[in-house]
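QUALITY CONTROL LOG
STEP: pairwise intake check
CHECKER ROLE: data steward
CRITERIA: each record must contain a sequence immediately followed by its structure tokens, with no blank fields

ENTRY 1 OF 2
RESULT FIELD BELOW
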Amino acid sequence: MRGPLDRFPVSTTLLRRLAYASIVSNVAVVVTGGAVRLTASGLGCPTWPRCTDDSYTTTAEMGVHGVIEFGNRLLGFVVGFIALAVLLAVLARRPRPRGLLPLAVAVFLGIPAQAVLGGITVLTNLNPWVVGLHFLASMAVIAAAYALWRRTVEPDGPTIPTVPAPLRHLALLTTVVGAAVLVVGTWVTGSGPHAGDQGAKRNGLDPEAISQLHADGVFLLIGLSVALVFAFRAVGATRATRAAVVLVAVELGQGLIGFVQYFTHLPAVLVAAHMLGSCLVLLATLAVLWSTRERGPVAPLARPAETATPVTTAA
């Protein structure tokens, strides 16, 4: 039975471009969300879902902080629109790759979930733990958007490893350590000076001690990533090696920004660059994980055996 979306066939190229736009827009909303915090505009709209008690939009009395906070909220609608476009394109895709629809739904539902978390951060006066959760939820949506983007061009056949099992496990361990570094990074942020508003509380952790823990995690992550480069090269996995080299380069750039911002007392522009770098590290880590496997083509269906026709001979 044909549905209404069948009238609008969607090519693989269009679907892939929409999925890529979803990744870019979700990264953009993370960076602009950081700009809200770094400009002390976290309470530029002091309530939620309205901007003020009487208006859904910013007012002149809210000043530039209201404009910045309301602008970030508007960008959330753009991200949601792109996610909806991706979902509709997936529904219209014929044939539809297996597993694509759940990913599209996850990304689409992640947008309103993020909006609710953003509202909770406002209603809790920028509680640092809630702010950190808001950031980590964005990372989860970006990861789902990346998986969707990669799935748009993969065949529906079985997953085929491209490297030995121990190296796949090492890549998975690197991904887990990368996630842990992101979590600890939110603790560092919650203990630092950029609270998003002058009256917002901090999480009470010692900034120097938690920064050292974060740096230790970064060193471990870089060490694992370098090990992946040599291990992949040793087994001749060219695609995986290339992905691991990119990951190390991104990590080194992110680490350099982190050290400079720490020793220069966290200038806002470097903190914003560090937030963008966090997104890039996540994407580069996922690229390594994807490079350890690939999907083969769907095996053709076996034809039923032909029924032999008995041959009769004349007596």
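ENTRY 2 OF 2
RESULT FIELD BELOW
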Amino acid sequence: MPAPDKHGVGARIAYCRSVMRPKLSQRQLADAANVSLGAIRKIERGERGVSDAMLDAIADALGVDPARLLADRAPAHTRVRDALPALSAALATYDLPDDGPFRPNRELHTAVVEAARWRLAAQYTQIARKLPDLLIELARAYHSTLAEHRTELACLLVQAYRSADAVAYKFGAHDLSARLIELMRWAVPVSGDPLLAASVAYVRTETFFAARAYAAGLRVLEQAVDAAPAPTSPPTIAARGALHMRAAVIAGRAGHAAAAVSHLDEARALAGLVAEDVYYGTAFGPDSVKIHEVSVAVSLGAEHVSRALDIADQWQPPQDLPAERRSGFYIDLARAQLWSGLADDAFESLKVARHIAPQHTREHPWVREDAATLRRLKRADSETLTNFAEWCSAT
């Protein structure tokens, strides 16, 4: 029998299981992951290994990305990057897929919803592993269906492309991200859903962020606001409000303070009319707007960051917000704190972001920039800071 590994995958699984709310017993975890109780016990004691498929199942049952459980395996960011070519290959035949099998629409819908959940939870490894095959299967289904019956499949394609785009954009594959956005724009007219079109306009802003074409991105978003359905129901209110949130941030990056404030005011007013929730794949509500208020303050520059600090002094994102959004709050806050001379606070915020969504934090360019700055400012300081800077590849 191999010597128990007290610091490996099993120990991480045991730790995650023990801090769940409510806490999971080993039997509950085994049942949720469809793994035997004996296997879970041996894995947690470090007495047996874990296959990739079993690791994914256990991670899914725990509600964490497999990256949180990795020890001596390939780093999660390497696994994601290695999967990007497969994602590109899946897109290459979007209009001429092979003749393989595909599941009924209801099962495809379940798979697409699961991928959206991974995106919101910043579980990018899951997306990178599963989306290429799902996109191929959706393309088969779409092109095997009569044109007049493709509406539902077009909706599913848009949502699946969006989940795949989260990986491409966050991991710096901006050409692939732009391709995915163009495919969303290709499929959305077939869906006939104006709210889905609004969500695609929201995502399209990534191309302008990547190109630093902020003024152009603001124009496109303002056109999308004008084209969005009237805000007469929670989904239509959220669609318009999300566009205003996004417009506020890109206006800040463009240096248009008045436009940023105006869009933020519009978003805040609309958020007051709905409960915080995920609408058409985008979190929107009072908490999301508050997070964007911090982002706008940082986007406008150092002279505005006091507003971000004021918000953080009185409020923190609630635990039920999507992990990607919560980690983004602390990444933005860290930059505001760093610009305000609060180096220790900035590092604490980065560590909180890492705990919430490790992959999102690791791949964020601001994290690398700010960790490198902190390391220069505190050369003689703790090994923890050095380890963090090396973890996120700060130079």
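INTAKE CHECK: passed for both entries
DESCRIPTIVE NOTE, ENTRY 2: Strands lie at 277-279, 282-284.
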